[in-house]
Amino acid sequence: MSEQTIQNNLYSENVKIGEKYICLSLGATTISDLIKSKTIKSYPISNNIKNKKPDVLILDSNREVIVYQEQKIPQKFKSEKDIQKAINQEIYVAKELNAKIFVVSDGDSFIWINPQTGNRILNENEEEILLPVSPKKNAEVLEKLILEISESVNEQNDIILKKEYIDPTDLAIKINGVLKNLTFASSKMALYTFVEVFLFKYLSDIEILKGENSFDYIYRLYGVNGIPQYDDATILGKYSDGAREQMRYLFPEGEDGTTIINGQIFHVEKRGGEYFSPDNTDFVFKQVILEFKQYEKKAGQFKYISKDFKSKLFETFMKNNDEKSEMGQFFTPLKIVQGMVSMVDIKPKMKICDPASGVGKFLLEAIDDNLDNYFKVENGEFQSNISLTGYEKMMSDGDDITVILAKANMLIYCSKLFQNNKDNISKIADKLLNGTFKVFTTALGTLDKIEENSYDLILANPPYYQSKVMSQKAKETGQYKLGGLGVEAIFLEWIMKSLKPGGVANVVLPDGIFSNESNRKLKQFLIKNCFVESIISLPVDTFFNTPKKTYILTIRKKTTAELKSSTIQAYPIFAYLCKSIGETLDVYRFDIDDNDLSNAIEKYNHYRKLDYTEREELKEPFKSYFSEDAHLKLIDVQSFNPDESWIIENWWSDDEKVSLGFEEEVITLSISEYQEILTDTIDIINSFKEELEWLKNK
């Protein structure tokens, strides 16, 4: 049987291998012609290979050669000498085409080779891979194996790496301590320093940053095992001019001028051809690089980052810095974010907005469980079937760190997308990172313009404070008609008007929204245009540097038909009092078992899935399920008069609040009992007075 006959039996025509790859059966077409016809990506090839005719190629969606396969007849594939001859015959072609895998086969046996080393590729148990390349029969297994090999092999490694998800929280804490001791860095700058070096290491480990732009190249310059090749300032200069500039190129600035880094840290200048660091951050940079490398030796490369770390990165620095109030503006506890996200439905094609997005946790947690279905790259073009918008206002000192951290956070969350599409990083970064997060430089920021009827879902923890300037400027736009007290009132009006008919908002608000008489028109508008689905009372100190009493308000905007028919909400409002949220309410935020918030969300999700008519008159088992929880009340919406307070605690009696631990029991004393207590107290004071006189005269 000829080589071509064997090949045709295995592959015949082009065969898809899952969603990621396509297998081309060739044999008569030169590499030069494949490039000219744009069948494969254009490579700078030498004369040695341009007339080569590959038997089988497996390409990814970017037309990049992933597998180069050489087909042999069985008679020339019997001995180890025959196999090695077949390998040597074509391996240099695979290497020049940057193929991750080179396969030689006689149709029965398949030898998988790393073109970079010439060695056979081994699985996680260091056993030779012998899987047949037979996409008609084993496409799913083949796709998985090719992806695993592509993510693992390089010029130094022939073994498939185990997917060990690292959680470098300990490293973050240690780096924070190093920066505090060496530079007295603020929590904000310590966080940003860690993020930049973390991205440098991560992008190097997934081979987006290579060669002289890679982490290992910079690390080796320090001559850790010998004499340093350069002084610290020169090494920092090479990083600044090399890797940092490459990151800026790969992750271009958006229209607001922000990207994942801005060079505010690790300063180096060049004079007379020599680098020097005016603030001695070259030494700090070295210490941070060495700490990262030391961590890698213990835990492994930064290829797979645990979801828990991605979510808690920003909280790590908040918990471990003395200046804990400085970054409160970034901080919505993760348990609140995840809880609020779980209270709403996230679906493809939705338009989701956070008008005060901070570091983007609401938006990122909303999509985290289904990233592969929301974003993909086809034919080199980024495609999304969900719309995310995160607005933030430039900080008063002109610092853009909030949106930079949001974009860096999104890169970490969407790491797999970038890792699998290395030739399209700039396109993805521009459309995904820059397309999602935007910063405003005006006084009103997001509030400059109400986006009427634009969003299916709004998730937010907007700022709440008094500002006559903001209130006046909002009034001057002519868009805000409801008055109200505080910036939070302006945000709530923006949110209600920016929701699409039928859209849902889940928002954290302070008690003033519900209690202040000046918010009467705001509450009237809310009742007229929305259904109040839920109000959940959060404990004081839920938020890091905000001792205010806060609530989660869930509303659904009425549909056009419901507005036309003046539909009135007939089902009750789900109201819940929380004393705990699953973590301590101090600056350290230790996890605890006590979690009223989790109970509230679980019960609300049962409630919201009932039909509206079922909510109006509950039947068993739901009637008992809800009524047995003393923290929960289903309150008639007619009780929510815009002229009166909407503080839901008012619907619980004093005795109920005492039994739940929200208030101390009031003890009533008779006059004689009170007189007795006073007499006892006076006697104790006199006793102390006598002892003090004795000590004085001694």
UniProtKB/TrEMBL annotation:
Taxonomic superkingdom: Bacteria
Enzyme class: transferase
Name of this protein: site-specific DNA-methyltransferase (adenine-specific)
A Gene Ontology BP annotation from the UniProt entry: DNA restriction-modification system
Organism: Enterococcus moraviensis ATCC BAA-383
Pfam families noted in UniProt: N6_Mtase (PF02384)
InterPro entries linked: DNA_Adenine_Mtase (IPR051537), DNA_methylase_A-5 (IPR003356), DNA_methylase_N6_adenine_CS (IPR002052), SAM-dependent_MTases_sf (IPR029063)
Gene3D superfamilies: Vaccinia Virus protein VP39
UniProt keyword S-adenosyl-L-methionine, yes or no: yes
EC code: 2.1.1.72
